[in-house]
């Protein structure tokens, strides 16, 4: 019983920390640019394990901004690979200071999120 309780407490602490990181990321995130912006935009569609998300970024935004967005919606790059479709590559390991335009994510791209964990802990 004590072992199960300590596992439960550890899980709750982990979830609380994840929520705090998510809130911090939301606060750091710049506003989404308007669709009619005169600046080059990157329209990104994210295919996650449970949903599809869409967001606009400026082409001049850094990769770190995109990764902050993913953290703000609950997909921390530590836990998920962020894969571009062609060429297939994990962009989450690239230079976070690269602009989305430099990474060829303009004007639009679909990125797939894949869990870094080999076994799913939800299967219990």
Describe this structure in words.
The protein is of the alpha+beta class. Helix content is 30%, strand content 23%. It has 2 helices and 5 strands, in the order αββαβββ. Strand 3 and strand 4 form a beta hairpin. Helix 1 crosses helix 2. The chain is elongated, with a radius of gyration of 17 Å. The C terminus is likely disordered.
Concise summary:
The protein has helices at residues 2-28, 63-72, and strands spanning 41-47, 52-58, 80-84, 89-90, 108-115. The chain is of the alpha+beta class and 124 residues long. Strand 1 (41-47) and strand 2 (52-58) form a beta hairpin.
Q: What layout of secondary structure does this protein have?
A:
Elements: H1 2-28, E1 41-47, E2 52-58, H2 63-72, E3 80-84, E4 89-90, E5 108-115
Parallel strand pairs: 1-5
Antiparallel strand pairs: 1-2, 3-4, 3-5
Helix pairs in contact: 1-2
Q: Whole-Å distance between the termini? A: 18 Å
Major sheet: 5 strands, mixed
Which ranges are low-confidence, i.e. pLDDT below 50, for 5 or more consecutive residues? 119-124
Order of helices and strands: HEEHEEE
Tally of DSSP β-strands: 5
Count up the helices: 2
Strand content: 15-25%
Q: What is the average of the pLDDT values?
A: 86
**Content-based structural category:** alpha+beta
Strands of the largest sheet, in order across it? 2-1-5-3-4
Please state the CA-atom Rg, rounded to the nearest Å: 17 Å
Helix share, percent: 25-40%
Net shape: elongated
